[in-house]
Amino acid sequence: MTPERLSLDQKRTLYRDGFVVLRGFVDGHRVAQARRLVLEDLDRRHGARAEDRKARRPYPGLSPEVVGLFNDTGLREVIEAVLGPVDAARACQLATRLHAEPGDYVNESGYRDRDTPFLGWHGHLDGLWNGATRIHQHVGRAMTREETEAWNQEPSTNGCRKAFPDLGSNLTNFAALVAIALSDQTAEGSGNFGVLKGAHHHIERFFQDQREAGGPLGPDGPDWKRIDTDTPNGCGLRHYPEAVRAAFSKHAQRTPDGRLWPKPTLLRLAPGDAAIVLHAVPHGATRVTAQEPRLMAFFRVTPQARPEPNRTCYPDALCDIWREWPGMADVVAEERGTS
Question: What is the CATH number of the domain that holds 75?
């Protein structure tokens, strides 16, 4: 029998850290069903036979077995106890990573994977434009004019636009990211989901400062240049503010060019463990050095109470990160000394 709400201690953890892990929340049978579908899809996409790779198959993230990880396990009820009513999940992002050695692939930060500390972690906020074409893979050579024009189109490869001028924001935002492990990630090097623990407090203050400075919120707004031209590929993307990066200098590493890389907290999740993560927490995957693929299911949740014009872009919730969490009001008041 799984709990239908977070305990007081779990709420305090969520407030303090920006995430909370629910151990063993999804039963093994459901995990095995979802895992089988993901692995079958992976075999088809990476199979040796061309006809297998080209075969049109339903995306497993739309299957009842996978969306049921959220809808039918009690996770939806746990979320509703803190967010209020939410819609049933209709789709799920299935994030798979395979074993890989440190390589020359240039990531969205503009650095080679092998040069990026902490198993290649370069955290991001969700809802940010990430370029309309593949990240520029050349170091030491700038993009040509044609490459730059193609890259700067909208939407980006993740479906995001650069700006929402009518709303004064340059990113979309949901309330909660719900992650469910479908593979063993209890050891470092298993593609662990990494989070910048506690960064949501800094992110909130940063967005408040941007609004006070006249906005817009997000990249290309005050004190947040979207493009970093000093990276090895000359066009790295800043997926969270430099001021927040600088706030996490303790335990950080620097690359030879002086770039600071905050150390993430790597979640050590067993199959069936779930994590609830605030949108305002920079996060990202890490490299898989083990042989087993890393399999994760992600659901992005927005409360039904959000104003309709702001379903995908809600600046007020960027500047007040607990605005949409009525079930957290007691803990927020307690922690902020406003009760």
Answer: 2.60.120.620
pLDDT, one tens digit per residue, over 249-271 is: 999 999 999 999 999 999 999 99
Q: Look-up: residue for tokens 């370029």?
A: 131
What's the total number of domains in the chain? 1
Helices (H) and strands (E) in the chain, counts: 11, 12
φ, ψ for residue 115, nearest 5 deg = -95, -5
Whether 70 maps to a domain, the answer reads yes
Helix (H, G, I), strand (E, B), or coil: what is residue 298? Answer: strand
CA 213, distance to chain mean position in Å, is 27
Measure the N-to-C terminal CA separation of the chain; round to a whole number of Å.
Answer: 33
CB 233 within 8 A of CB 259: no
Question: How big is the CA angle at 104 (ends 110 and 236), to the nearest 5 degrees?
Answer: 5
pTM over 0.90: yes
pLDDT digits (tens, 9 = 90+) for 201-220: 999 999 999 999 999 999 99
Both structure tokens of 142? 């700038």
Q: Write phi, then psi, for 143 (nearest 5 degrees).
A: -65, 145
Residue span of the structural domain in which 185 resides: 8-334
Tokens at 170, concatenated: 């340059």
Domain annotation covers residue 339: no
Tell me, yes or no, whether 28 lies in a domain.
Answer: yes
On whether residue 165 sits in a domain, the answer given is: yes
Tell me the pLDDT tens digit for each residue of 52-68: 555 667 899 999 999 99
Q: What is the distance between the alpha carbons of residues 16 and 208, in angstroms, rounded to a whole number?
A: 19
